[in-house]
Design goal:
This protein is an alpha+beta fold and about 140 residues long. Helix content is about 30%, strand content about 25%. Strands 1-2-3-4-5 form a five-stranded mixed β-sheet, with helices on both faces.
């Protein structure tokens, strides 16, 4: 199945919050409040997107990208959170984000943080060309 990205709307925030707080996702991210997600929708430096199955239009995750106003072309992939695991949605989304960042935005760098214990995400990022530049402590 293919996926498409569309801007998150205020009505999507409960889905985003639920996905973020799901047992399989929560250990790997620092959850935001619903209000923080709402604020991000209007923030000029942030792109908050819903991941939908193209065929059904069903929401299967969300993406948060920051650095849109960075003068050095450094874009941060803050979060890809998928609710329907094991279907390849994360890889498809990552490829769309990379294409958008480098082709449309002419970014010089796309970067992210990932927790070491998130092996699924780490393996995905490495297989898609990301390199480990260092480790955050605490």
């Amino acid at each position: 199945m293919s996926v498409q990205l569309r801007p998150t709307r205020p009505a999507d925030i409960p889905f985003v919050y639920e996905t973020e707080h799901a047992a399989e996702n929560r250990p790997f991210l620092l959850p935001w409040t619903e209000e923080r997600h709402r604020q991000a929708l209007a923030h000029p430096d942030i792109r908050h997107l819903i991941v939908e199955e193209t065929e059904s239009g069903r929401a299967v995750g969300y993406v948060i990208i920051a650095g849109l106003t960075n003068p050095h072309g450094s874009i941060e992939l803050m979060r890809i959170t998928i609710s329907a695991k094991g279907k390849g949605y994360g890889r498809r989304v990552l490829r769309q984000v990379k294409r958008w960042a480098f082709e449309e935005q002419q970014a010089h760098r796309l970067w992210l943080d990932v927790k070491e214990e998130n092996e699924r995400a780490l393996n995905l990022y490495l297989s898609e060309g990301f390199v480990i530049e260092g480790k955050l402590r605490e």
